[in-house]
């Protein structure tokens, strides 16, 4: 579906490089919410789809990555392994990785029509962060609902994902998705005669 969307000019190009921060450490898995964001909300056409996972490791200054491209030049899964003392400047790291992939011929050079920088080899990067919100359709006991609301309330006062991942000067979009823990029975509505 991503291959078809990439060339479907019926949809405007969302970004040259569309980047999703994922929580899955499995290099062959992308969360359903992420794929729904790309395909179901408003199809997001891009030249390259990046799925980035950050893992904090024990070595304080470790900074390395692995890449899985699924035998394509437009779907790239990056696993960043960063030490606990390394700033998580995802934008900077991702541009380094993209330039490395271009130099090795694994990623096509992205020419820009308009740029203030001469010789620029990369297009724009748009980062999408998917945040979960407690769904009104979740079938929870009162106690479970209090616990989940408390957790989500606390998350609001921690540092923002933009600051945490070093994206405060990047193009970042936040998308809220409903968090379903268990689904309650849906009441069917009928037309009155």
Quick overview of this protein structure:
This protein is α/β, with parallel strands linked by helices and 193 residues long. It has 5 helices and 6 strands; from the N terminus they run αβαβββαβααβ. The mean pLDDT is 83.
Total number of β-strand segments? 6
Give the number of domains: 1
Apparent shape:
globular
Unreliable residue stretches: none
Structure notes:
The chain contains 5 helices and 6 strands; from the N terminus they run αβαβββαβααβ. It is α/β, with parallel strands linked by helices and 193 residues long. The protein has a 6-stranded mixed beta sheet. The radius of gyration is 19 Å and the shape is globular.
Q: What are the salient characteristics of this protein?
A:
alpha/beta, 6-stranded mixed β-sheet, about 190 residues, 5 helices
Which helices and strands occur, and which strands form pairs?
Blueprint: H1 2-7, E1 13-21, H2 32-41, E2 45-57, E3 63-68, E4 75-83, H3 90-103, E5 125-134, H4 142-157, H5 161-164, E6 171-179
Parallel strand pairs: 1-2, 1-5, 2-4, 5-6
Antiparallel strand pairs: 3-4
């Amino acid at each position: 579906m991503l291959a078809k969307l990439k060339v479907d000019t019926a949809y405007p190009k969302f970004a040259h490089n569309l980047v999703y921060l994922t929580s899955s450490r499995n290099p062959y898995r992308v969360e359903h919410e992420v794929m729904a964001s790309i395909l179901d909300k408003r199809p997001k056409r891009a030249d390259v789809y990046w799925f980035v996972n950050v893992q904090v490791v024990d070595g304080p200054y470790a900074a390395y990555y692995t890449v899985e491209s699924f035998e394509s030049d437009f779907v790239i899964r990056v696993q960043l392994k960063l030490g606990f003392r390394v700033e998580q400047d995802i934008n900077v790291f991702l541009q380094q990785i993209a330039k490395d992939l271009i130099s090795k011929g694994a990623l096509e050079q992205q020419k820009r029509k308009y740029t203030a920088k001469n010789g620029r080899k990369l297009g724009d990067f748009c980062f999408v962060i998917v945040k979960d919100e407690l769904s009104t359709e979740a079938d929870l006991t009162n106690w479970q609902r209090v616990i989940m609301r408390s957790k989500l309330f606390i998350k609001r006062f921690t540092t923002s994902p933009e600051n945490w991942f070093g994206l405060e000067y990047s193009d970042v979009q936040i998308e809220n998705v409903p968090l379903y823990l268990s689904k309650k029975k849906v009441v069917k509505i009928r037309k009155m005669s």
